[in-house]
Amino acid sequence: MADGNKNIKQPAKKQGPKKPNFFVATFGELKQVSWPTFGDTMKRLGAVLAITAIFLVVLMAIDLLLQFIHQNLFQIDPGSAQYLTAGQIAALIVGGVLVVAAIAGVIAYKVVKSRSNKDR
């Protein structure tokens, strides 16, 4: 009985396409890339540097504003019956405006997002 199984043909192993070498394929893809010119690269670098400088100035201004608020608000002695100074009042007003602006921004974002979802 075992001899009868020898006559059964086994299916041939499938051989797929040869896999190219990784480095050959990588360099082949890199040859197809359209690289920017030096001038384009410098323009984009200038744009990145300008935006970075703008964000630097904005963040420094916010830092100075928050530092002003912090210094003036925490000079209040809770045990004394003294009145608030002008700087402390200004710090309270500016801090309140920042909180209201943040809340209004979140509400506006939610409204715009919900309207854009309805338009789809």
Would you write up a description of this structure?
This protein is mainly alpha-helical. The chain starts with 21 loop residues before the first helix and ends with a helix. It is 68% helix and 0% strand. It is elongated, with a radius of gyration of 34 Å.
What's this model, at a glance?
By secondary structure, the protein is mostly helical. Helix content is 68%, strand content 0%.
What labels describe this entry?
120 residues, mainly alpha, 3 helices, 68% helix, elongated
The low-pLDDT segments are: none
Span between termini: 71 Å
Total number of beta strands: 0
| SSE ordering | HHH
Question: How many domains make up the coordinates?
Answer: 1
Please report which band the strand proportion falls in: under 5%, 5-15%, 15-25%, 25-35%, 35-45% or over 45%: under 5%
In round numbers, the mean pLDDT is 81
User: Rg to the nearest angstrom?
Assistant: 34 Å
Give the % helix: 55-70%
- Tally of helical runs: 3
What summary fits the major beta sheet?
Answer: none
Structural class: mainly alpha
Based on CA inertia axes, which overall geometry fits? elongated
